[in-house]
Specification:
With 275 residues, this protein is of the alpha/beta class. It contains ten helices and ten strands. Helices cover 39% and strands 13% of the residues. Strand 7, helix 5 (143-152) and strand 8 (159-163) form a beta-alpha-beta unit. Helix 1 runs parallel beside helix 2, helix 1 (26-39) crosses helix 9 and helix 3 packs across helix 4 (117-130).
């Protein structure tokens, strides 16, 4: 089954579902990435901080799928923030991945207390010109961070990857992304732990469509124009997570799922990095 794509603000296409690889280690990442690509995934998400880029790269090569048929995202954390530091970071990422380029490079966390994400972004802009990355974006940024970034730099972020699920819907940030043509990518889209997927509302909707609660949540992401990147090391669930493009939710169902929001805002702008 072909995966729909979303057009980024630079004209490139990002597959609308991806494979998250945190917190897989190299050996597991190799196996999961290879399995996922053979199942039909074309979008793989990793990061320097995850410590699994070697495994991700090996999984890509063992899948037998051509590199240019895939969309690879990686991220640079606080170690590489500041003017020009990201150059060494992307070179190390490419060395670990054994690739000539990545499709999307993200600032992993804004770390606003350090006030270096603007200078880091300006370095990202030079990296785009070098051909080592095709697109640049951010992760865990708030609208205030994005306003500051856009006021001081030339290239608008292509994506903002944030923690987002029916428990943490963050409608203001989603609306900001749509207004500014910044695609929102959902990390931990299935929630953390099993609480979300055992919710009765999801169970009823899942039964109606003959799907799993996880598939309903991922389809909810698709209906909202988001790009979810679920992680699973289970081959059956990998395939199930991918099989969400043969049905659609009603507006009432989308609203009911959105109403599962707990109102708890996750940490997004601390000086301490997380996922």
């Amino acid at each position: 089954m072909a995966i729909p794509s979303v057009t980024l603000n630079n004209g490139l296409q990002i597959p609308q579902i991806g494979l998250g690889t945190w917190p897989l280690k190299d050996d597991d990442a190799l196996m999961v990435v290879e399995t996922a690509i053979r199942a039909g995934y074309r979008h793989i998400d990793t990061a320097f901080r995850y410590g699994n880029q070697r495994g991700v790269g090996n999984g890509v090569r063992q899948s037998g799928i051509a590199r240019d048929a895939l969309f690879i995202t990686t991220k640079l954390d606080g170690e590489f923030q500041g003017a020009n530091r990201a150059i060494a970071g992307i070179d190390e990422c490419l060395r670990q991945l054994q690739m000539d380029y990545v499709d999307l490079l993200l600032i992993h966390w804004p770390l606003p207390q350090r006030n270096e994400y603007v200078s880091t972004w300006k370095t990202f802009e030079t990296i785009v010109a070098s051909g080592k990355v095709r697109s640049i974006g951010v992760s865990n940024f708030t609208p205030a961070h994005l306003d500051h970034l856009q006021a001081e730099t030339s290239i608008r972020p292509a994506t903002n990857q944030i923690q987002l699920s029916p428990r943490i819907t963050r409608p203001d940030q989603v609306a900001y992304g749509k207004k500014h043509n910044i695609v929102t990518v959902s990390w931990s889209p299935l929630g953390q732990g099993n609480d979300l997927l055992s919710d009765a509302t999801l169970g009823v909707i899942a039964q109606k469509y003959g799907k799993t609660p996880a598939q309903i949540v991922l389809r909810w992401n698709i209906e909202l124009g988001l790009v979810p990147i679920p992680k699973s090391a289970n081959p059956t669930r990998l395939v199930q997570n991918f099989e969400i493009f043969d049905f659609g939710l009603t507006l009432a169902e989308i609203a009911a799922i959105s109403a599962l929001d707990t109102g708890v805002e996750p940490r997004v702008d601390s000086d301490v990095e997380g996922h």
